[in-house]
Design a protein that fits this description.
By secondary structure, the protein is mainly alpha-helical. Helices cover 51% and strands 0% of the residues.
Length: 65
Amino acid sequence: MANLLSIRSGTMTLAEVIARQGRNPDAVLAEIAATNAKLNALGLVLDSDPRPSPKPRHGRGGGNL
């Protein structure tokens, strides 16, 4: 949770947190980009994904179900 707060407050970058975990930030970010591209190609939207979505998200915000 501390890492999340550091990233969100701007006191650390995502790359710094990844590097402190002993991983290569460029490799991790490339993996994330590849995963996001695959999700997009399949038309899948994860509830945890903050990126803008072309698909409406149902079941949240009081919309029609």
